[in-house]
Design a protein that fits this description.
single chain; mainly alpha; two-stranded antiparallel sheet; transmembrane; membrane
Length: 286
């Protein structure tokens, strides 16, 4: 493969991640602002960040069949390649692999939900720009856990991101026309988003360690398994817990039964959430 073709593929992948990352942010924000009929016969906005996280995991889980389809065709045309017949978990084994993936799925669940909740408090444009602050957290977590010493251009980039974050935060607060409640909401949204980025940085460092380690886990296989484990965590742990914890969603912190009803009975909400799920799947695939 020539350098020109390689560069074209690289820039195409970067453009794809930017495009589909923007689509899933916008789709989620628009969905949160969309009204629909609930299971009680009333009309309410679909402000369901935990349900959105559940659909995100379904999108990630779609990477698993994609991995096995690609593996099937590789086995079909490269039968003599010994690496194709090795376990995707390497020497790690499935038990240890699943435990690590459960940890990664928990980090993914917390970071995505915190980012989703932040959209209830500030515009999607702000939350999308704040994603760049992930660079700062990854720099620090990489230094702590991987003992990786940053170069000067890394430090310069981080300083630029911090300056940008400050400008974004100031702009958002100045545009609230001095309303204290609105400023407070923007501040809460930014804080929640940054907390999500901090958790996400830990997840990325763990993923990097196991994908570049001696076991070399295939990225598509890892993303798919994270989706499966995250889906099970939502269904078996978080949905029941949030249902029984008192809150403003018809007596629950988040009523997943009502969320499922609104998802099934409102075509616009269903369409937006399906677009979100598909964008997550493609984002992780590329």
């Amino acid at each position: 493969m020539s350098d020109k073709t390689s560069n074209l593929i690289t820039f195409s992948l970067i453009g794809g991640t930017m495009l589909f990352g923007t689509i899933n942010t916008v789709a989620m924000k628009v969905t949160f602002s969309t009204d629909g009929k609930n299971m009680f016969g009333g009309i309410e906005a679909f402000e369901k960040p935990w349900w959105s996280t559940f659909l995100m995991f379904i999108g990630e889980a779609l990477c698993l069949p994609a991995y096995f389809i690609m593996k099937f065709y590789e086995n079909k045309y490269k039968k003599d390649d010994k690496q194709l017949h090795q376990s995707p978990t390497g020497s790690m084994g499935y038990t240890r692999f699943i435990l690590i993936v459960l940890l990664l799925s928990t980090c993914d669940l917390l970071s995505s939900t915190l980012s989703g909740i932040s959209m209830l408090y500030c515009p999607a444009s702000i939350t999308q720009m704040l994603r760049g602050f992930l660079i700062v957290f990854v720099l620090f977590t990489g230094r702590i856990f991987l003992k990786r010493i940053p170069q000067m251009f890394h430090v310069f980039g981080v300083v630029m991101v911090i300056v940008g974050l400050i400008l974004v935060g100031l702009t958002a607060m100045l545009n609230t026309s001095g309303e204290n409640s609105a400023v407070g909401q923007i501040f809460i949204g930014i804080a929640l988003n940054l907390a999500g980025q901090a958790v996400s940085s830990i997840q990325m460092i763990i993923e990097e360690k196991i994908m570049k380690g001696t076991d070399s886990i295939p990225p598509l296989f890892l993303a798919g398994f994270e989706g499966v484990c995250g889906t099970l965590l939502c269904v078996c742990v978080f949905f029941p817990a949030l249902y029984f914890i008192p809150g403003n969603d018809h007596g629950s912190q988040e009523n997943f039964i009502n969320a499922a009803y609104m998802f099934a009975k409102n075509p616009l909400i269903c369409g937006l959430m399906c677009l979100y799920t598909l964008s997550v799947a493609v984002f992780n695939f590329i």
